[in-house]
Amino acid sequence: MRNIRLPAHVAFIMDGNGRWAKKHFRPRGYGHKMGVQNMIKLCSHAFKLGVKIVTVYALSTENLSRPQEELDGIYDLFRSYFQKQKGKIQELGVRVNVMGDLTPLPEDVRGLLLETMRDTAVNAPNGLLNLCINYGARQEIIQAVNHAVAFGRFVDENSFKSLLYSAGMPDPDLIIRTGGEVRLSNFLLYQAAYTELYFSNKMWPEFSRRDLEKALVNYSQRDRRFGNVKKG
Ligand code: FPP
């Protein structure tokens, strides 16, 4: 992995937990449990390799319409990783930032997320981990437009970006989606205008460090022209 052009910002659409669980004759909640374990393993590997920002799609605005039982299981995973096992996230040595509308979440979960952001705000030498929770790109864009209107301002690209959850961050260089679907599903639609996309047929819990490295090598071979012509 040395001497390759690494992306500074990688985002993951962690799809396939449910199908992976089904394949192993286990309930969907088990798939999510293994999914979080894999998320921590892969984020840690990405930071170790030198990626500076990792953004994960943990729960979409649309996911909030899933059966309450499944959502309760996911909220319990949040409780576990931000309270009982919080060391696992803190060991990453990164600042945790949450992107999304936290208002519909159970109050204790919301509190734990805000606490995690506060506790990791300083002394995070290894980078930044964005957790997208009840995140939807359309909701994010509409909220930004409404803020601009409320301020009575016209916006340009820079000022508009400062109204998004990702204010102050560089756009993702690479989005990796597992689970075999080839779409963005309302993820980072504004920020992904020139992002390289990588799709894997592996289900999220089985996407390995080696698979991540393959994706990074593939990225390093892309010719990113940003609409320009090749120089030289
Ligand atoms: C996609 O798989 C996964 C989700 C909708 C939820 C992912 C959530 C986590 C891994 C929890 C994150 C936890 C922390 C602590 C940040 P799917 O259920 O859509 O899979 P399927 O397409 O196979 O049904």
What does this 3D model show about the protein?
- Its EC number is 2.5.1.-.
- Pfam families: Prenyltransf (PF01255).
- It is an enzyme of class 2 (transferase).
- Catalyzes the condensation of isopentenyl diphosphate (IPP) with allylic pyrophosphates generating different type of terpenoids.
- The protein is α/β, with parallel strands linked by helices and 232 residues long.
- It has helices at 17-23, 28-49, 68-84, 86-90, 107-119, 137-151, 157-161, 209-220, and strands at 9-13, 53-60, 95-99, 128-135, 174-177, 196-199.
- The chain has one domain (9-220): Decaprenyl diphosphate synthase-like (Undecaprenyl pyrophosphate synthetase, 3-Layer(aba) Sandwich), CATH 3.40.1180.10.
- Helix 1 (17-23) crosses helix 2 (28-49), helix 2 packs across helix 3 and helix 3 packs parallel to helix 5.
- The chain is globular and about 55 Å long.
- The relative contact order is 0.19.
- The site of farnesyl diphosphate has 19 residues, from helix 1, helix 2, strand 2 and helix 3.
